[in-house]
């Protein structure tokens, strides 16, 4: 399983999706200073790396999010020199999306922060590269009610997940729990599975607290600060270092299970547990339990940390088509039943637990001072939407969110999934002053919720 190994070259610098610091919280890359580049080049060269490879890594890392490169890079991560793994569908049956000849257009507007926003203009202005809206008609039938691509993308473009990958890892974790290869997440700890992390911030932390981004580990994800934790992680990758070793360097700052602090390394730790529990790579396990069973039409591509340890970057670097992101949402809309076959892939109980906050620090609402990002609630690596009538209460709709404009919005009440990819290079300009929250994602949620309500009203939901 796991498919073909890609040609190794450039590791990746700093990814995350929500977080700390005045910077933001997501997959990102530091604007590497000239001094940092020089120091890295000298150090890597002295360590035996060919200088050409050193310079290529540093150049690609530094230019990854540049306005002139970002769109092409986001659909071509596997061509930038990163080591990677292909995740095959194994030619399994595809879950069909039935096109509608007379489908209604998108709604003209959506509401955000007391203002009416032109939806089409917003999608264009925010560099949307693909949007797919599907309306479920039965467990294994769905209509493709809207599809559009921009900025050179098409239905075959594999769009980098950034932190939407975290929701994939959560789903894989749930399957492992359902199969009994991982036990009670309320009792089992990280170090039950990864004893190398004894004495670190993850020592004795319950698996559930890691799933809920409440590990208590200290981590600064300000990727505009050259020496933040997220950028030190990036330097580790640029050196060809191991993600497992980097995780082992982290320490605790608060009691686990008390504060919703978004730490991308929490997801990397979940990946470490999964590798040991499944006794195979993340790519191989993903192919076995999801990619060959859900009804995806294209293979996926998962970036790795380096050419030796070849550990998947679980926290956010998976390339998937926009249609297949929508099919992943369809699996969750089906409460774990395959859109292709109706087979149960994930328990209904896991889906319910994964998409609902169950503690005060995980609830939505500005009154929650124990969360980095109280506009949403939080489950097991899924964001939970606030209720429209009372934003301090969780709704039934939920999201996967990735930096620079990646979203999967799932509305069980409407029977709708909306998948959107983007490559907005001015993400920093939408950071809320004095807050960890970013308006691109909050606006995106309101836009996609309006789209779902619009299409649910056309013909009714199943």
UniProtKB/TrEMBL annotation:
Q: Where is the Beta-lactamase-related domain?
A: 142-419
Q: Which domain of life is it from?
A: Eukaryota
- Please give the start and end residues of each transmembrane region: 26-49
* InterPro entries in the record: Beta-lactam-related, Beta-lactam/transpept-like, Diverse_Enzym_Activities
Matching Pfam families: Beta-lactamase
User: Which keywords fit this entry according to its UniProt record?
Assistant: Membrane, Transmembrane, Transmembrane helix
Answer whether the UniProt record assigns the keyword Acetylation to this protein: no
Keyword Transmembrane helix among record annotations: yes
The cross-references to SUPFAM superfamilies, in alphabetical order and at most eight, read:
beta-lactamase/transpeptidase-like
Gene3D superfamilies per the UniProt record, alphabetical:
DD-peptidase/beta-lactamase superfamily
Can you name this protein?
A: Beta-lactamase-related domain-containing protein
